[in-house]
User: Fold these one by one.
Assistant:
Number 1:
Amino acid sequence: MPDQKRPMETKPLKPNNPKNKLTQNERDSLFFLVYLYMRIGKTEDAQLILEGLEKSCPEEERTGKYLAAIALDQEDGKKALGYLKPYLDRSEIKSQDAPLLLMQAKSLWILGQENESRNIISEYLIMAGE
């Protein structure tokens, strides 16, 4: 009788944490993958991952920024502004978030709001010290 292979038994995976949330390392790895997908032009794949992250980790701030970048890549200014709104509605924008002003300016330009776009660029230049 030939040696028959039995299927390997698998046990269900136990989550790393009790709330089934992704760990910081897992989120960082997914964002790195998103970054790579965007760099090689696979924005649909990146968007799919980001939409999953948006549902599973709503407190993660990077998700909206990446989704705004994808919306701009797709020339969807209205959608991009929607993603940017939570970051730009703060009383004070941090200097590390200054590039978001450029994304806002591009969104406004796409929507045909050139004067508003120029005003945002001026605000960015002041913030950047130029």
Number 2:
Amino acid sequence: MQKVCVLNEIQKLYEPLSLKEKKDFRKKFLEETELSLASFYVCLRGDTFRPLERKLFIEMIQEYGKSEDNSNA
């Protein structure tokens, strides 16, 4: 029997990043929110960020994707 992993909306934004991109993004996000690394992963897994943290996550990851695209151009 195969285990099916269903990604939540936040994970779908985070998952496509490379390991280096995830590390860089995570560092910046944790600096902004002052979340611990453990809390970050709990919130990411359960999509349990507080509303302002969730809004910041989405804004930052969208901007992060744009800046990464521009640096590769």
